[in-house]
Each structure stands twice: as C-alpha cells, then as structure tokens.
Amino acid sequence: MKKFLIYFVIVLLTSVSFLFAPKPTENKGPDSQCPVNYIQLNKYMGFSMNCDAIEYMGGSVSPDYLFKKNYSRQSRPLYLLTGSFIGYSIYSLSSPFHNAINEIAGSWFENKIPEKEVSLYLSHYAALILINFFVLIFSLLLFEKIITHFTGDWKNGAWIRYSLMLLLISNHITKTFFWTPHQQMFNTLLPLLSIWLFLKYISITKSNPKQLAYSFLSGTLLLFYGSFLLLLPIILFTVVYNNKNIEKQILIKRFQNAFLNTFLFILPLLIWIFILKINRIEFYSHETAFFREFIWVIDALTDANRNLLNELESNFSVYIKTTGILIFPIVFLIISFFISNKGKKYSGHYTYTNIFFFNIILLFLFFYFLGYYSDRLTYSLCPLFIAYAAILLNRQPLKKLKRISIIAIIFAWHLFILLNEMPHFSDRFYF
Predict the structure, then answer these.
(1) For tag attachment on the chain, is the N or C end more exposed, with fewer CB atoms within 10 Å?
(2) pTM of the model
(3) CA 51 to CA 180: how far, in whole Å?
(4) C-alpha angle with apex 189: 184 to 191, nearest 5 degrees?
C-alpha cells in the first residue's frame, strides 16, 4: 500500500506540473481534420484536448456504439466499457452537483456537447483520465520490478529511485495526452510489460496454468489497445526458444505449447468477434481498414501499380524522422553507462543486455511494419532505454556527486519538457 501511495504521488505531481506548461504555439494534430483544442483552466493552467477525445468520451457514454457497423473504436471494446463503468459510477456519485457543473463547464467543449449533458461527459472524461492515471501507476510498478529483478534492492537512496521514476513518466507523451481521453499512456506500459512477460515466460519449460492465464490476460489487453499484439511474438519466442540446447522431442512439445498459448492469446478477440456476429455485426478494425496498418505490405505486394521495395524505403525514411523523441533517453543511457560503476551481471541464462536488445529490436520492427508513423508511437522505445539506464545505475552504490548529477539532469530534463517541445523531423505526423 505504501508503494502504491508513493507511485500515486509521483504520477499526480508529474501530471499536475504539465498543467502549467505554456499553451502550444501550433496545432499538433495529424492534419487539419484533427485539431487540438486547448482548455484554459485559469491564467496559469491549461491542457490540450486531442481531437479524438470527444469520440472516446462519446463511446464511454454510449457503449452501444460498439455494435454499430464500421464503428472506428470497435476493435477496442474493453477500453470503452471500462471507461463506461467508471464514468457512470462517477456520474451517479456526483448527481447533487450536475446543475452547477453544467453551468460552469458548459463552454469548455465549444458547444459541441449540449449544456445539460456536460456533467455526464465530464464524468466519463474523469473516468478515462483515471485510466491514464492507473496505467502510469502500473507502469511504475513494473519498472521497479524489472530493475530489482536484475540488480536487487535500490542501492542509491530514495532520491535516485524516485527521480528515475519521474524520468520514466516525464515526457512529451504524458504532457500532451495525460489530461485528454486517449490511449497513449499504454505506450509507456507496453514496453515494460513486454520485458516483464519475457522474464515470466523464459523460465518456464512446460505449459502450466499460470502461463496459460498470462497468455489469456495478455490477449485481453488487445481489446484495450491494438499495440498489445506485440506481446504475442514475445510469448512465442520465450515458449519455443528458452534454451540453446533443445532436444527434438522437447521442441515438438514447445511448439504445441506455443500453439496453445497463441490460441489463448487470441481467444478474447475471437469471443468479441463472436459476440458481434450473434448481433449480426461484422467485426471492423479501423486500424487495418482505414490506415492499412501491417496490411500495407500485402497491398504493395498485390497491387501492380505499387512497389514494395520503394515503399519499404520511403516508410523507413518517414519512420526514422519520428525518432526525435528518443534523443534524450538515448543520451541519458549513454551518460548512465559512463557514470555507473562496473557491476555484477545478471546471473541468469539471459543477461539483461540480451533481453533489452531483443525487445528493442522487436518494438522497432513492430512499429516500422505498422505503416502509420508518429512520434507518439516511436516513443514506445523510450521506457526500454530508461529502464536499461536504471539497471546500469543500480548495479552498485554510486558516489554522492554522481547521484546528485543524475538527479540534477533528470529535473533539468523535466523542466525542459515543461517549457518546450521535442525536436520533430517528420513532415507527416507529429502526434
């Protein structure tokens, strides 16, 4: 409970500090059809409301949208249903204040929402922000578990420990998306969960109920956010190949185990498709149907007017230009390498270097073949660089001057993020 309260305070202070960030000087939406509305709370505080926010709140208020043909959020039902459950709970508890809320906040949504419904939408707004809150808290939990798994207890005092946690969640994605209903906080959780899942599976040599439960729960996350699909190749790799010397018989059993885990991973999605089917609705994925995520490779292969090699090259060029958001985490990792003492390596079969390198390559390839490129997606690599830096710094006790230097660098970076924007090189999408 004490840890949870500490994580709560870190997330709260970090997110509230971003309310004091200057108003953006330009629209950071992906195009003119997706404007960003700035909500001015008072003379000093405000936040950006992403163009998707109203749609997410609308889906939370009316989850029956999920059963409408070609609904753009149909592939993420559990996210909206969770928001709906929390939102209506808040709405019920806040009923004595609805009239006052409607009057005070009626202008916040530029008349896009009828005044009498403002309290309803704000209740669901609060619910979706709470999801952001708990996703970041869970990210900090996994971050600490990963660090202590490889290096043992924290060795350099509470200030270093909590500063590194601040670094994990103090970034332009949190700054831009925390206070708006959106799913981008999952991009902090996803890479850490991929490391944690790798560690859980790599030590298991045969199928067991806990492993199968992890696979099913991982597949359930796919109904919150599509990028959790990344967890499937991690499951398959760790189930099939967790030892260099594998006998043929054992290998066959592992392939059987991989098939079973894959089935359980996709089972939640199959259940959702079945539910839609019995309601005479065809499952619709806006990500593949409209943005052609992953499908662009097949499109380029089957369309005589397109050239796959040319598209691989041009997409790679656009993808690389979204990596400005990685600059500081990589610089911090390099600083951590030189500032840390040479410590004892992890004694397991897989060193942390191997595990992190595998996950970084996997994430890089996953978002490259996605085919939709923006800084907010490429950001998913950042938590891996920061976690690896934390491992380096926690291998042995550091001298006081080094500890002070690290803390100063992290707080200076947080101040920079608060007052500035990240370098952006792509001419297509930012957020």
Answers:
(1) N
(2) 0.92
(3) 9
(4) 110
Q: Could you tell me which of 385, 383, 379, 378 has the C-alpha nearest to residue 319? A: 378
Per the CB < 8 A criterion, the answer to whether 282 and 69 are in contact is yes
In sequence order, the 6+-apart residues with CB closer than 8 A to the CB of 80 are 56, 59, 60, 63, 65, 66, 73
- Measured between alpha carbons, how far is 378 from 373 in angstroms, rounded to an integer? 8
From CA 207, how far away is CA 242, in angstroms rounded?
A: 13
Structure tokens at 174: 């949190």
Element (H, E) at 49: strand 46-49
3-state secondary structure 368-388: HHHCCCCHHHHHHHHHHHHHH
What is the dihedral sign for C-alpha 330, 335, 337, 338? positive
pLDDT digits (tens, 9 = 90+) for 201-258: 877 656 678 888 999 999 999 999 999 999 999 998 888 776 554 555 566 777 888 8
Q: Which is nearest to 123 in space by CA: 157, 99, 90, 98?
A: 90
Residue 315's nearest CA partner among 369, 361, 277, 354 is 369
Burial of 286 (0-12, 13-18, 19+ CB in 10 A): middle
| Single-letter code of the amino acid located at 311 | E
CA angle, corner 99, sides to 95 and 105, nearest 5? 110
Kindly report the backbone phi and psi dihedral angles of residue 46, in degrees, each rounded to the nearest multiple of 5, phi listed first: 180, 175
Cα of 90 vs its chain's centroid, Å: 25
**pLDDT tens digits, 309-350:** 999 999 999 999 999 899 999 999 999 999 986 655 555 545
The identity of residue 278, as a single letter, is I
* Pair 359, 413: CB distance under 8 Å: no
At 247, give phi and psi (nearest 5°). Answer: -70, 155
Give me 277's structure tokens: 């089917």
Q: Cβ neighbours of residue 4 under 8 Å, at least 6 residues apart?
A: 137
Q: Sign of the C-alpha dihedral, residues 7, 77, 197, 185? A: negative
Strands 37-40 and 46-49, bridge-based pairing: antiparallel
Of 230, 125, 238, give the one whose Cα is nearest residue 187.
230
Cα angle for residues 204, 390, 319 (degrees, 5° grid): 85
Q: What's the CA gap between 47 and 22, in Å, rounded?
A: 9
